[in-house]
Amino acid sequence: MALAITVGRGQKRPQGELIELDEKNAVDSLGQALSEHTGIEAWWSGGIFLNCHRSIERWLSQQIIGVDVDYHDPLDQHAPLTDEARESLAGALPKAPCTWGHLTPRGARLVVLLDTPIIDRLMYPLAWSSLIAHLGQWLPKIEVGTLRIDQQCRDLARYFWSPRATVGGVARGQ
Q: Considering the entire predicted model, what is its pTM?
């Protein structure tokens, strides 16, 4: 099975298309695919689905896992990044244990490329939990508020918005 992502054009439109990535240059290939697939409601998923219809029931495999890191203000509300949190997170991203990471308006997205695809639904939660334990040790400490991993990202049909994506040259979150 080739390294690929599913992309789509709207939250209420789960039908997408499969885009194969260059395995020798996965990060740049991912960046090109996401940058060409933009728009207010453009989304991408690391999952491969039967007939490119994004739903848990149609999930076939996954080799790319996206993880959201969310900023919570001192009142524990999910909020836009403060300047301090943005600076701390931006400085830490190059050292993140992931294939690629970028800031988002309310935190960061970490993208992990697995050596082999997961093809068993029962293995996905195990891979997710192991990945989260590893990434959780990396989260930078900030003085005001906290950064934490969004535990709801574990959904097999999870998708991420891709407006203004760039990847290798970073970008994405304004």
A: 0.84
Domains of the chain: which residue ranges?
4-161
Give the residue from 133, 171, 126 showing the smallest Cα distance to 149: 133
Amino acid residing at 49: F
pLDDT tens by residue, 43-84: 889 999 999 999 999 999 999 999 999 999 999 999 999 998
Tell me the CA end-to-end span of the chain in Å, nearest whole number.
35
Encode pLDDT of 154-171 as tens digits: 889 888 876 555 544 545
Amino acid symbol at 17: E
φ/ψ region of 40 (left if φ > 0, alpha if ψ in -120 to 50, else beta) reads alpha
According to DSSP, residue 84 is labeled H
Q: How far is CA 62 from the centre of its chain?
A: 12
